[in-house]
Amino acid sequence: MPTGPKQGLKHLSASDAAAFRAKLKNVIISGKEVAPIVEGGKGVAVTNGYTAGAFAAAGAVGTFSGVNADTFDETGKAIPYTYKATTRRERHEELIVQSARGAIQQAKIAHDIAGGKGRIHMNVLWEMGACERILTETLEGAKGLIHGITCGAGMPYRLGDIAEHYGVYYHPIISSSRAFNALWKRSYSKTAQWLGSVVYEDPWLAGGHNGLSNSENSEKPEDPYPRVAALRATMNSFGLHKTPILMAGGVWHLKEWEHWLDNPEIGEIAFQFGTRPILTKESPVTPEWKKKLMELEEGDVFLNRFSPTGFYSSAVNNNFIQSLRGRSERQVEYRTEQEGLFSEPLPVGARGRPVFLQTDDKARADAWKAQGFTDALKTPDSTLVFVTPEDGKQIVIDQIECMGCLSHCRFSNWKDHDDYTTGKRADPRSFCIQKTLQDIAHGAGIDNELMFSGHNAYRFKTDPFYKGYHVPTIGELVERILTGY
User: Which of 60, 171, 280, 463 could connect to 150 by a Cys-Cys bridge, CB 3.0–4.6 Å?
Assistant: First the structure.
């Protein structure tokens, strides 16, 4: 049985590289023949019009992020998102306006740089706040500039309808054949002519938010080959033999995936790169971020479930992640009344009203408080987490300043429709994802912000292409990838 990528292969000679390039066939994506290389659409300003345009200009597929995209001033400097309103719903409206405006500008930049080559895609998250509205307003304002929409983080049933209305292709991101089967039967069968590809994103290796289901073990990665072969079989059963699959997550050297090429079990295939494009000259991330990528060790990227979306996500295990890990570890169950083993009173909150802990947990709580973690914050699961007063104050401020960037946010209990609340207590074990991603994308230090990354990022350190802290252009990266490495 064929398997996933074959790591540890020797580098090719010039003749072998040419032979590999000849074997690597172009594919039809979003209505045009392109190199089988796609830029992953990393959210909140990490992929933009400059990166997408450069990928397209190289004959590949560029993807800019439509998740709270930047708007640039006349000097090329990003204009910070600002909020003047006092209520969440009003700030949410301000967010929508700024997001659509930024996405339209990024589409224009990408289009101009591409010069008619390649394809330009826009990436959105179905679970971002007002996703459909931001997507439709962007497509309305950037007609003819965007060729395809990639979308994950949820089950985007209406994606095909929106794509058909605007005459663009859609590329759903899924992590199992079962998910695509559900999407096809409920919706996509009606708009099959606009289905540009199906993106299979490895839920264990991809950076950012991952599609692990509750039935899958986060600590036991599965071989992608049988999962993608199953997806192809499902697609073929629907007559989608010529629709490409985009393999995303864990892709580094295409030579390692050579056994997937011209393989009837896999069919039409292209490869999406999310991590490698961050380390390019066009990438907008800070020099500090790029340097950090070159110094990561294997295991430095941590698969976690702290995101306010409720999804798993992969990020560098820096101070930010370690703080969240510590917060969740300093956690005990409580009851509001004495009940069985819950007999030890503990005063919490400004008024010092008692809750009741078990004896062992009370001892642990006292030890944490002695270490300075004196604030006990209630979670939706009848537990307390212990934080410093400074962290406790910042958590409350961040929750109050919520601008509704997600359709459902467990950190702030925001929901973008109906009564605008999830109906649950805000969860202090999570964080404001909009704030930290905006901060790290626009110059804040990388140690104390969320730094998404794919699990293969440690390979920058050993890949000779990056020797001496070499930072290539996107054009150089695409040429390198086409050699197999």
Answer: 171
pTM: 0.93
Q: How far apart are CA 233 and CA 242, in angstroms?
A: 12
As a whole number of angstroms, the distance between CA 372 and CA 264 comes to 60
Task: Give residue 239's Cα distance to chain centre.
Answer: 30
Residue 237 phi/psi, 5° resolution? -65, -20
Q: DSSP letters along 394-430, please?
A: HHHHHHHT----BSB-TTT-BBSSTTSB-SS---TTS
Count of all residues that appear for the chain in the document: 485
**What is the per-residue pLDDT across 361-381, written as a single tens digit (0 to 9) for each?**
999 999 999 999 999 999 999
Cβ contact 152:94 at 8 Å: no
pLDDT of residue 17: 81
Residues 150 and 303: their CA atoms lie apart, in Å, by: 23
Closest CA to 277 of 27, 20, 475, 9: 475
**In this model, does residue 31 exceed pLDDT 70?**
yes
Residue 98's DSSP bridge partners are none
Closest CA to 311 of 95, 43, 89, 46: 43
Neighbouring-strand partners of residue 272: 38, 248
Query: Domain 14-284+461-482 is classified in which CATH homologous superfamily?
Result: Aldolase class I (3.20.20.70)
pLDDT computed for residue 250 by the predictor: 94
pLDDT in tens, 136-168: 999 999 999 999 999 988 789 999 999 999 999
Strands (E) in 100-202, as ranges, are 119-125, 148-152, 169-174, 198-201
**Spatial distance between the Cα atoms of 107 and 138, rounded to a whole number of angstroms:** 9
Return the closest-CA partner of residue 207 out of 39, 322, 92: 39
Phi then psi for residue 376, to 5 deg, are -100, 120
C-alpha to C-alpha distance for 47 and 276, rounded to whole angstroms: 12
Calculate Rg over the CA atoms of the chain: 23
* Residue tagged 């998404």 (tokens): 452
3-state secondary structure of 223: coil
Q: How confident is the model at residue 1 (pLDDT cuts 50, 70, 90)?
A: very low
Backbone phi, psi, residue 178, to 5°: -60, -40
Give the single-character DSSP code of 121.
Answer: E
Contact 343, 335 (CB under 8 A): no
Domain boundaries, the chain: 14-284+461-482, 312-441
Q: What per-residue string of b and e applies to 319-348 under the rule 16 or more CB within 10 Å gives b?
A: ebbeebeebbebbbbbeeeeeeebebebeb
pLDDT surpasses 60 at 241: yes
- Side by side, the strands of the sheet bearing 375-378 are 331-333, 383-387, 375-378
